[in-house]
Amino acid sequence: MINLTINGLDVSVEEGSTLLEAAQYLGFPIPTLCHMEGLSPYGACRLCVVEIGEGEKSKLVSSCTYPAEEGLKVRTASARVVRARKMIIELLLASCPQSKTIQDLASKLEVRQQRFRQEHEDCILCGLCVRMCEEQMMAKAIGFRGRGEKRSIGTPFDIKSDVCRFCGGCIYVCPACQLRCTYNEPEKAICGGCANLSPPCVEIDRFNDMMCYMDPCVACEIEKD
């Protein structure tokens, strides 16, 4: 067993566990987008970042790919982590503003506006479709091509694949395919109509190192009542 500290609690997890698996097993919620149970971790979206270490040596890592280590100190909801997640979801929302999955994550992370120019991309390169096709459908009909800004997903040489069975698995997992009719203006990109707009605890300075990780937040639920 591996002994580490998560959100100030001393815990033990099985050797080989990732920080995401350890946190989820212990009930600490961490948002994910490119991660899906049954598929290998990829770490593309970075939405699952957590803070490890202490002081000046602390850093953000993707919890879905970082292994649990002996004596590691982990914070899943520090102010630094929350700021990073909000920035990431804003950038994803700019790339694919009509994605139901991304909109719901934005609302859950208390993102109320989208400040970047909307691109309306049809792919955010999360790799879910590629891993689904290879690892669950055993087809390898699609894959990544190119590098940098030219990186894309498709069949080799853009030739129709002979191994594709039109199973629809790639569409099923794709967050860009799960669209919702919405406004196109950045200031109206997120509905948030059913969200609690005034959390009573997370803006207090003393919560800088560890903000609320309850899901739902107990204080917020009391506030709504």
Structure write-up:
This protein is of the alpha+beta class and 225 residues long. It has two domains: 2-118 and 181-209, Ubiquitin-like (UB roll) (Roll), CATH 3.10.20; 128-173, Alpha-Beta Plaits, CATH 3.30.70. 24% of the residues lie in helices and 12% in strands. The chain has helices at 19-25, 79-95, 100-108, 128-136, 169-173, 218-224; strands at residues 2-6, 9-13, 49-52, 59-62, 73-75, 143-145, 152-154. The strands form two sheets. The chain has a five-stranded mixed beta sheet, with helices on both faces. β1 (2-6) and β2 form a beta hairpin. α2 runs antiparallel to α3. The chain starts with a strand and ends with a helix.
Give short descriptive properties of this protein.
225 residues, alpha+beta, Ubiquitin-like (UB roll), Alpha-Beta Plaits, 5-stranded mixed beta sheet, two-stranded antiparallel sheet, 6 helices, 7 strands, 24% helix, globular
Quick overview of this protein structure:
24% of the residues lie in helices and 12% in strands. By secondary structure, the chain is α+β, with helices and mostly antiparallel strands. The longest helix has 17 residues, at 79-95.
Write the layout of secondary structure elements.
Blueprint lengths: L1 E5 L2 E5 L5 H7 L23 E4 L6 E4 L10 E3 L3 H17 L4 H9 L19 H9 L6 E3 L6 E3 L14 H5 L44 H7 L1
CATH architecture descriptor name of the largest domain? Roll
Percent of residues in helical segments?
A: 10-25%
What is the overall number of helices? 6
Number of domains: 2
Largest sheet strand order? 2-1-5-3-4
Q: Span from first to last CA?
A: 42 Å
Task: Work out the number of β strands.
Answer: 7
Mean pLDDT metric: 83
* Main sheet attributes: strand count, strand direction, barrel closure: 5 strands, mixed
The name of the CATH topology of the largest domain is Ubiquitin-like (UB roll)
Shape: globular
Write the element-wise H/E pattern from the N-terminal end onward: EEHEEEHHHEEHH
CATH class of the largest domain: Alpha Beta
The amount of beta strand, in percent, is 5-15%
Contiguous runs where pLDDT drops below 50 for at least 5 residues: 192-206
Class by helix and strand content?
A: alpha+beta
Using only C-alpha atoms, the radius of gyration works out to 19 Å
